[in-house]
Design a protein that fits this description.
The chain contains two helices and nine strands. The chain is of the alpha+beta class and 133 residues long. A hairpin with an 8-residue loop joins strand 6 and strand 7.
């Protein structure tokens, strides 16, 4: 049984581009989100992670499951997988880089190679549904 890193991600699209973040000192872009704390639900963990990274509040009641994706974990030993459970949600506030985040941007499908392998799968799913260009 392979090791699996359980993560959550917030899918937010503006002008048919996907919101992504780059952590300080890193060159790879990621979809905002992160790991849950013990006993947190998906919603609790996602709200906390997005608040920490982007300083916005996800709106209760607006969360919608988008999909679950699994791939080799970026920068980890072969066989360590990341399982990304993705949600969409509306938010309140102004998106800005916070905590460990160096930069935010909205990436088109053409820039999917700048992201991790699991994010490639998410970009593919969004493109297939014509949600991003």
């Amino acid at each position: 049984m392979p090791n699996v890193i359980d993560k959550l991600a917030w899918i937010y699209i503006e002008n048919k581009r996907l919101l992504c973040t780059r952590s300080k000192g890193k060159d790879t872009w990621y979809i905002p989100g992160g790991k849950r704390e013990p006993a947190e639900t998906d919603w609790q963990a996602l709200r906390r992670e997005v608040k920490e990274e982007l300083d916005v509040e996800l709106r209760p009641g607006s969360i919608k499951f988008f999909g679950k994706f699994e791939a080799q974990a970026h920068g980890k030993a072969e066989g360590i997988l990341v399982r990304m459970t993705c949600y969409t949600a509306e938010f309140a506030g102004t998106i800005s880089a916070s905590s460990e985040i160096e930069e935010v941007c909205w990436l088109p499908y053409a820039d999917r190679e700048k992201t991790s392998l699991v994010d490639h799968l998410i970009f593919d799913a969004l493109k297939e549904k014509n949600m991003i260009d």
